[in-house]
């Protein structure tokens, strides 16, 4: 290593003794040393920091560091951290800048995914000082109570992927046991705390139309517009991420194959509400998107948001609902009480819950979730090369299916002779699943499963063309192959555009782990009968 | 073997000597022997027949055999054939029954695929007698001239898959050289002889609507309705069948990857014509399909036919045209002069050429091509188990792409250092191709190709959502891997529903060899530079 480094370190040590800010060293390094040398220097600096007292820094000084140019500082439990270099590699993206110059605790109580040991370890690497004792005292007034404390109770059978915000899925083996997924077992995918909404005070605002804002109470939504009911499957874009993760690690909640459910939804048609608000041929000239805002809010006050294309929103056959009932009852808190948008055939994230505002616009929603999250990228793209503008926001999802029973690793008794395999299949855009192929020999041969369009035995009715919003359940019973000791079961579905699922995950791998729809594979063992007769 | 058989054979021999019809034996066998014994008997009978003169049979007797119950007899070049048992395994389906009781020659001149040695071999196994000389003489009056004699001239560069009817594709390496496929090189897929249509006498009949039949001349179609122009890709359902054939032999023309082309089409909107003919909300109550009949006819006089769902036909955004121009000129004879239906986003076969009749109906077209041909089945289904009713008629096609250059087996000079790969990509249903991934290492790693929406350099414009009717061309230039001596190039496309192509052909194999859209793979060699400097 170049000995040029040492004068810098000596200078640093000197200044430490004088209790001056470390930033002075930082400025020095940034100005004159190559990146390789900087790295080496940082190594020495860290070693020294560990054994030395850190400078005391005032809140005023911290507050001055709120940009990449001036540096990004935050405080946590009385420590001061310079996270400038971490901003670009923060898994949550630029949101981290909201915390610049202030305390990070309230954000972490909102985005509770941070409450993990390895997050603290990462943070500790960036520590540059201690916050002045009197400033630390003042901070306590900022401290909010846990915004998740009013979240509803959930069924203990759910498999929790994240507590705050709450994200959970049912045990997948129950999914194909009921055509309609019981509400309690319907997967929960919250991005923020569940807002408390008083139904009497609830107002929906419809904006962006020449007539001005239309404001509707819950009662008006229920009485002024005809009530429509559809059965529709909602699926999280991250369903089956855990399988993609096995190829190569992606970023996101580790969903199994239960982030999908099928329910009946009742409410007003979005089309009817937009027409009442003044949508017409003139608006159709310039409007391209309908934006939705939730009542679930970031700590900054900005709402969860998403948008869908205008054609889907106003089409007679689009069946987009402002739903106030799920499975025949008021929509429960976790699913968007009192109103959620149901956009059948479209990825879950656009089905905005706790709907507060509708905006007709020439533009897509500018929300993080529309612009920088739910998009699919090529397998060669990683976090260093991703260009969010290069891919469209996910709307319709591709064809999907999974085996719900038997479960991975099950042991089948040879004496049973027959094996029943069950699962679900669905496609986006209202495309009907017309076939599910099942293999019990790892994909060498395939048999066609029996499809079910309801819980009624033998129901194979088809919905109107282009409006197949609900999944199909499927089942097949096959003889156990006489020789095999282990079986690899596979399913794949075909929709009525004859699209089918890709064979493997590697070539559809993407950095966010979305759109994970390769063949579902389940390995089971066959145990030999003990008593020989 | 049971000795019960021999009395039957002895009886047969006796009758042969007396020159009585073999049918008497057949009746005897059908009545009293099990199928196994029948088989054995037939073996003996065949052996005897080969060494014995066959009975003389009158046309009157032949004509009496026109059903499975009475037996199905035909004549060919003076021979009489009992093809009853062949009917169920005839590759062309039940159409064969049209020939029952008569001469097969006129059908074979229409379906010229029969003019092959192995077809004659199969036929010879069913010979049961010789036609009476005087009846054979009379047959000559049936003999028509070659119905294909007035087919148009074609470009010699086309690769012909079948001459009568004419089916041919361009050399695929030219496909990505021009965003608009030159008409002469646009693939030709005819099911029957090209009809001769006098444009002055041409009439289009629109039927099935309460107001009665609307009849339109070509002039009226051109002047009464606004002229619309779209750019749309048409693809044969059998495109890339030859690749599927390598997995396991399928039935159908051995198309390469050139049974696809992109053209501009101009004409009246089908929607406008249907509205003029009386389509409205009342009709929408019961109408489900729009049927098309071509002026190309079977020998029986029945027309080529197909249908599309009513929603596609009447939708403002469906863009279905009654086209009279292709690439700015009158549609040529091979492509449907003077009118063909262009159903963008939908499989070629529904884009009916030489359109004679439109029928609004509650039912799909009952044509062979709608009911018993262009459907996709599971890989486990073969000709013995196929149930045509079990699959829907193909309409929208799945996502597709292919590498047009370099060609399979090309040799790349190492000194070139870079390799440019080009191709096309398209998806059905108006879904836009948003990405093409290319691998030069057999699928281990992938790079994103540059998409082109026209021949204009860098044109990446998107069509309106849901109306991406035209393909995208794509191109990528990559460094030659330094060590490799052979490269496996692969491409796969992703559309805006994030559907993608399956990895391999085995699991999408189907008995008709349709919907062949697994990854396209091309192997090339790298030759080392000879002169070492």
TrEMBL record, chains A, B:
Protein name (record): Sulfite oxidase
What role is this protein assigned?
Catalyzes the oxidation of sulfite to sulfate, the terminal reaction in the oxidative degradation of sulfur-containing amino acids.
Please list the residue ranges annotated as the Cytochrome b5 heme-binding domain: 54-132
Q: Name its GO BP terms in alphabetical order.
A: nervous system development; sulfur compound metabolic process
Query: Which residues, by range, are in coiled-coil regions?
Result: none
Under catalytic activity, the entry for this protein gives: sulfite + O2 + H2O = sulfate + H2O2
Q: What is its main location?
A: mitochondrion
What's its top-level EC category? oxidoreductase
Give the signal peptide, or none.
none
One GO MF term, please?
Answer: molybdopterin cofactor binding
Recorded E.C. number(s)? Answer: 1.8.3.1
SMART domains, per database record: Cyt-b5 (SM01117)
* Cofactor(s) it depends on: heme b; Mo-molybdopterin
Q: What residue spans carry the region label Disordered?
A: 141-166
- Gene assigned in the entry: SUOX
Identify the InterPro entries for this entry. Cyt_B5-like_heme/steroid-bd, Cyt_B5-like_heme/steroid_sf, Cyt_B5_heme-BS, Ig_E-set, MoCF_OxRdtse_dimer, Mopterin_OxRdtase_euk, OxRdtase_Mopterin-bd_dom, OxRdtase_Mopterin-bd_sf
Q: In which pathway does it act?
A: Energy metabolism; sulfur metabolism; Sulfur metabolism
Q: Which CDD domains match?
A: eukary_SO_Moco
- In which compartments does the protein localize? Mitochondrion intermembrane space
Any one cellular-component term (Gene Ontology) = mitochondrial intermembrane space
Pfam families assigned to the protein according to its UniProt record, in alphabetical order: Cyt-b5 (PF00173), Mo-co_dimer (PF03404), Oxidored_molyb (PF00174)
Keywords linked to the UniProt accession: Heme, Iron, Metal-binding, Mitochondrion, Molybdenum, Oxidoreductase
């Amino acid at each position: 290593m170049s000995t040029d480094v040492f004068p810098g370190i000596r200078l640093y040590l000197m200044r430490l003794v004088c209790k001056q800010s470390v930033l002075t060293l930082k400025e020095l390094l940034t100005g004159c040393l190559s990146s390789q040398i900087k790295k080496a220097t940082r190594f020495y600096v860290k070693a020294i920091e560990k054994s030395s007292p850190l400078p005391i820094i005032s809140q005023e000084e911290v507050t001055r560091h709120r940009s990449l140019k001036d540096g990004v500082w935050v405080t946590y439990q009385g420590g001061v951290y310079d996270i400038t270099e971490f901003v670009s590699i923060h898994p949550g993206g630029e949101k981290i800048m909201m915390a610049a110059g202030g305390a990070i605790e309230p954000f972490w109580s909102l985005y509770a995914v941070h409450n993990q040991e390895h997050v603290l370890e990462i943070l500790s690497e960036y520590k540059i000082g201690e916050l002045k004792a009197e400033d630390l005292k003042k901070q306590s007034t900022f401290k909010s109570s846990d915004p998740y404390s009013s979240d509803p109770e959930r069924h203990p059978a759910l498999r929790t992927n994240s507590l705050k915000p709450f994200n959970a899925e049912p045990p997948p083996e129950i999914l194909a046991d009921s055509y309609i997924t019981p509400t309690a077992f319907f997967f929960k995918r919250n991005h923020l705390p569940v807002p408390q909404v008083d139904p009497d005070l609830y107002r929906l605002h419809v904006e962006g139309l020449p007539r001005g804002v239309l404001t509707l109470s819950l009662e008006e939504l229920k009485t002024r517009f005809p009530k429509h009911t559809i059965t529709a499957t909602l699926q999280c874009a991250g369903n089956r991420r855990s399988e993609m993760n096995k190829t190569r690690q992606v970023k996101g909640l580790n969903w199994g194959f239960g982030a999908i459910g099928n329910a009946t939804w009742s409410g007003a048609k979005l089309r009817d509400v937009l027409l009442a608000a003044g949508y017409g041929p003139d608006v159709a000239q310039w409007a391209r998107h309908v934006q939705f805002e939730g009542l679930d809010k970031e700590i900054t006050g900005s709402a969860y948001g998403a948008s869908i294309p205008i054609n889907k929103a106003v089409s007679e056959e689009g069946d987009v609902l402002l739903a106030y009932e799920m499975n025949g009852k008021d929509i429960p808190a976790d699913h968007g009480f009192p109103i959620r948008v149901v956009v059948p055939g479209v990825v879950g994230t656009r089905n905005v819950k706790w709907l507060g505002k509708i905006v007709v616009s020439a533009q897509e929603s500018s929300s993080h979730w529309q612009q920088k999250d739910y998009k699919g990228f090529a397998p060669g793209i990683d976090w260093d090369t991703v260009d969010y503008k290069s891919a469209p926001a996910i709307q319709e999802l591709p064809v999907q299916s999974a085996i719900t029973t038997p479960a991975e690793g099950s042991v089948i008794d040879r004496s049973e002779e027959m094996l029943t395999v069950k699962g679900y299949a669905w496609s986006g855009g209202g495309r009907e699943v017309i076939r599910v192929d099942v293999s019990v020999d790892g994909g060498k041969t395939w048999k066609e499963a029996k499809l079910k369009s309801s819980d009624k035995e033998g129901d194979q009715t088809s919905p109107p063309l282009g409006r197949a919003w609900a999944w199909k359940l499927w089942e097949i019973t096959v003889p156990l192959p006489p020789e095999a000791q282990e079986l690899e079961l596979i399913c794949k579905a075909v929709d009525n555009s004859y699209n089918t699922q890709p064979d493997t995950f590697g070539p559809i791998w993407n950095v966010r782990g979305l759109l994970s729809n390769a063949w579902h594979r389940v390995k089971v063992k066959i145990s030999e009968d003990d008593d020989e007769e």
